[in-house]
């Protein structure tokens, strides 16, 4: 980093204060879509700026430039191969750089494209309102309304077409259906506790029960009970014993209206609850088979056919 922290740790302390304040600011570029693991944009702006400034810049000058709207990265290109929620690229673009990025997660690519695209404020407000009206109509019955609570986020799962087989399906394999907080004894006791990875399913921890319940939600288009368990989930299931439950929703259709679909699934007896997953596996009531393949090239390059 080229900017010099003169004297003490003053520069770092000032930066952490700016980052803390910035976390409370609503930044419309990042409101395009929720990204849970977002790195603090104010921190990334500081790091990008520091790399662009000559060495020996005083703290005072650094903060002056930080606050200015000058494109300090003009003529530079920033590439983020693991761009995630895109904070590095958005901040680099704001500082005048040309930006490029990639990510293994298609959701990240969609989000970052939207964040980097020039915005027509009028159009955005118009379509934002249409989307919100639609989501309220479809989903508001699931959430409490009134002065004591209001929904902060609505989620949808994009449908994509497989480029290999042309089948369409939900972008993510697990649909998370949350219990109705109105009927929970203490809704604040229900919280998300773990993620399989950056963007896939969540575990739910419910402290309304003693001992606490850890709930893994699995869903499938098929009615037959079949779901994937990551090595991490199996490890947690073993560690927590009876406190670990799998809630399985079968026969799920992503095409049906959410309200009707939810009511139908509940009428059909879902979720099926498997309490103490590890014991169920050991007793043979549930079976787990390895689904990972190790593919290697044969030593014999000309095998007999
Ligand atoms: C911590 S986030 C990156 C944060 C981002 N650089 C920023 O400035 O906010 C890590 C990202 O790396 C992506 N990722 C992990 N392995 C990858 C791979 N092999 N190829 C491309 N992206 C990958 C993940 O999908 C995730 O979005």
Distance between the termini: 60 Å
**Strand and helix order:** HHHEHEHHEEEEEHEHEH
Low-confidence stretches: 1-5, 178-187, 192-201
Kindly state the percentage of residues in helix: 25-40%
Side by side, the strands of the main sheet go 5-6-7-8-9
| Structural class assignment | alpha/beta
Give me the count of strands.
9
Largest sheet: 5 strands, mixed
Give a description of the structure.
The structure is a single chain. This protein has 305 residues and is an alpha/beta fold. The protein has two domains: 10-116, no CATH class; 159-283, no CATH class. The protein has nine helices and nine strands. It has helices at 10-22, 41-52, 59-67, 87-94, 106-116, 121-139, 231-240, 258-267, 277-283, and strands at 77-80, 98-101, 159-161, 168-170, 190-195, 202-206, 213-219, 244-249, 272-275. α1 packs across α2 and α2 (41-52) packs across α4 (87-94). The longest helix has 19 residues, at 121-139. The model is unreliable at 1-5, 178-187 and 192-201 (pLDDT under 50). The protein binds S-adenosylmethionine. S-adenosylmethionine binds at residues 37, 39, 44, 80, 82-85, 87-88, 103-105, 108, 198.
């Amino acid at each position: 980093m080229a900017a010099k922290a003169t004297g003490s740790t003053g520069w770092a302390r000032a930066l952490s204060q700016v980052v803390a304040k910035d976390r409370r600011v609503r930044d419309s570029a990042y409101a395009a879509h929720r990204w849970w693991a977002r790195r603090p944009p104010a921190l990334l702006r500081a790091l990008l700026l520091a790399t662009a400034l000559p060495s020996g810049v005083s703290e005072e000058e650094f903060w002056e430039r930080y606050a200015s709207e000058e494109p300090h990265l003009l003529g530079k290109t920033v590439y983020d191969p693991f761009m995630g929620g895109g904070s590095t690229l958005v901040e680099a673009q704001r500082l005048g750089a040309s930006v490029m990025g990639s990510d293994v997660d298609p959701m990240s690519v969609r989000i970052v494209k939207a964040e980097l695209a020039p915005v027509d404020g009028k159009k955005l407000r118009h379509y934002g309102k249409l989307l919100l009206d639609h989501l309220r109509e479809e989903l508001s019955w699931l959430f409490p309304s009134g002065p004591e609570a209001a929904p902060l986020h609505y989620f949808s799962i994009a449908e994509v077409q497989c480029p290999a087989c042309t089948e369409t399906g939900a972008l993510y394999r697990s649909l998370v259906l949350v219990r109705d907080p109105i009927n929970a004894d203490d809704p604040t006791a229900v919280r998300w506790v773990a993620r399989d990875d950056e963007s896939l399913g969540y575990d739910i921890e419910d402290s309304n029960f003693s001992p606490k319940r850890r709930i893994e939600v699995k869903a499938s288009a098929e009615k037959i009970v079949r779901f994937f368990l990551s090595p991490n989930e199996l490890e947690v299931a073993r560690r927590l014993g009876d406190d670990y439950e799998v809630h399985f929703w079968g026969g799920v259709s992503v095409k049906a209206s959410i309200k009707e679909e939810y009511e139908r699934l509940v009428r059909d007896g879902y979720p099926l609850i498997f309490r103490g997953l590890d014991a169920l596996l050991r007793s043979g009531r549930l079976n787990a088979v390895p689904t990972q393949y190790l593919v290697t090239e044969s030593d014999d390059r000309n095998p007999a056919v």
